Amino acid sequence: MTSRAFIRGWILSLALVALYPSALAQGQALQGRILDAETRDGLPGATVLLIQGGQRVAGQIADGAGVFVFDDILAGQYVLEASFVGYEVTRDTVHVPVDAPLDLLLTPTQTLLEELVVESQRENYERYAAGLETIRPSDLARVPMPDVTYDLAGYLLTLPGVVATGDRGGQLFVRGGTPTQNLVLLDGMRIFQPFHVVGFYSAFPADIIATTDVYAGGFNARYGGRISSVIDIKTRNGSKERVTGSASVAPFVSGLRVEVPILKNEASLIVSARESIIDRIAPEILGEELPFRFGDRFAKFHAFLNQTSSVTLTALRTSDTGNLRSGDPSDLSADIRRSTWKNEAYGARYLYIPEDAAVMSEFSVYYSSLESRYRQTAEDVRDADVSEFSLNIGFTYLLGANQINFGIFGNTNFFDFSFGRGRSDINTGVSSGGAFFEGRIVSSEYLQVEPGVRIEAFSRGLRRTIAPRLRLQFLPFGTGSRHRFSLAWGRYHQQIVGLNNEQDVSDVFTVWTASPRGTPVPRAVHYIAGWQMRPLRWLELSVEGYRKQLSDLSFPAFADEVGVLAEFSNVNGRAEGVDFKAEITTRRVYFSATYGHSEVNYVRPPQLSRAIFLAGTGRSVQLPRLEFNPPHDRRHQVGATLRLTAGAWSLGGRWQFGSGLPFTQVNGYYTGLDIGMAASSDFLTDVGTTLVSRSQPYGGRMPTYHRLDISVEHKVLFSQADLTLQAGVINAYDRANIFEYNIFTGNRVDQLPLIPSLGVRVDMR
User: Fold this and answer.
1) CA distances to 37, 477, 504, 670, 695 from 560, in Å
2) Hey, is 432 helix, strand or coil?
3) Residue 554: inside a domain, yes or no?
4) pLDDT tens sequence across 692-717
5) How confident is the model at residue 630 (pLDDT cuts 50, 70, 90)?
6) Is 251 found in the same domain as 324?
7) Nearby residues of 722 by Cβ (< 8 Å), 6 or more positions away
8) Complete edge-to-edge strand list for the sheet that includes strand 102-106
9) Domains: count for the chain
10) DSSP label at 733?
11) Global pTM?
């Protein structure tokens, strides 16, 4: 059988399964959802028990949408008992067979259970697996921030495999992957620039987030288009019971969130807006300018069309403006000093659960874009635009504790960029499409296996790819085991590449574009093995080793002329390392210590340059083999987070340390003349071209980075609202961490200095 016939047969089989889902059901089926009684959000991980005559018949853990299914149930009367940490237990009597899926509504408890929530969640082995960590809103509250709200970016920076250039620039590198190799999804929408120009703020506030799955590698087949990591963010639905919200004011950013029930118990709208104010008050607080402005706007409409279907509309807009170059930063109004980023994302999602089959169908369409402009000097102006349109159709079959997921997808991207200095814009576009199939098989309380495969066709490079994936979790002593082992393996492909100028000390400006024509699509193979142990109820230890084998990466090669992209080099590489983490969690104390050791290595095989010629000969230059460490190769990373709670008071601290990052050193500049045009040139009057002499690529290392942040909070509870007061300091010992070094002027730009903060937040009950 040819590969084409195999693929056609596979897709036909999936279509038949989708058309006849009842073939998978045997006997009577009982299905439904476990929902928050106030917001009608699904509660993933909630426990459902089926009881008859006082005896437990079966039990399940709800999936990521809060859905559960019991198959092969005998007709009769049962009691359904649903429970979830932080909610009151709900029981309901049902008579099987039932006519429609059931909704079990759980009411949040009024007791402050934040620390208990965290401790109980860590008993769920599904939260930690090879390369995966699921983050809850209560986790974000532990990390000190420069205001009274919390943020996902601040938490991500505490993970040992995540590297940032610092607190300016908004770029994160995950276990050897560049920012353009990280897939960031917000309710399914791809976000190209997920972090603000001040690096410890993401483009979305914490209080709209329900859960976040962070795959540092080894992700499932449903995810594609990136070869390094996935950050999958799912937002909350607004309250369908009453009007509620929050407001906060702090030196860095102030925010407002409003939730409105459009139709009680049926439809809701949540709107969030944040805006920075640090650029306006920094002169009074610090006696110096901080030339940054950023903000974001988010809106989400959710409605139940009936008991079996719902629709969601989501929109996000972000904006960032800052002077990231050296020199006088005081005038943001002068266009010559400004660098800007603008995100836009819009999406629609329709979810359908039929009454007579254990299958969930999802249809979604998304559009997202990023416009960016970067000025390092008055003459060096760079701009880059990228946009994407995507369509996805997915099906989930719930077979008791097991499930099968498959779907089809299509994406189209458009790129428009220029590296500046009078260079013409480059316009291009690519598209891809395919299907995925994955399953979750719980063979016993000891073993869970997640096989998958992603079949995708690209408009350039590799025409068709088959990418198998596998994840495995093993509990040697069952669900109560104190030891958990997990493995992940997979193949990944990426048609889109990111370009950075090696003349930049930091990766502030990144161009998104298509992989070069006539070259293979960049790909990676991930190997991850993890072990978690809980020797005591309040202590958890974990270690995880990983290796990412990278192939056919498109790495920019710049000519001697300043800022001119000559061509793309084809490089291979590897990223490998080991991460350690220790956590102490009690009702009053949370402490986390992490250490990550890694190495990222790129190799450029010997190749013929298509753009660099020997002067006067017209012959291409043979480029020798080159081995180097890219600019995100941080060998050592240490972090510690502490949070102490005593009644309504809490004290938090975070310390970070990172070894120096590589950069390309510049020897100097000189004026070059084109000797190939000697007959028509006057060397006495020709001004020539400014050329740059560089050392070995990324042969230098910047100084180490370290910083301490401290905050203290006090909560005051009222009958209708909660008031939170916060005070803190960023970079408590005023470490001068380098951010950018202007190779043209020799001026240095540092990270944020010591900054005190005061904040107040009001949450409506």
Assistant:
1) 64, 62, 15, 10, 12
2) strand
3) yes
4) 777 777 888 888 989 999 999 999 98
5) confident
6) yes
7) 715, 716, 762, 763, 765
8) 67-73, 28-36, 102-106
9) 3
10) T
11) 0.81
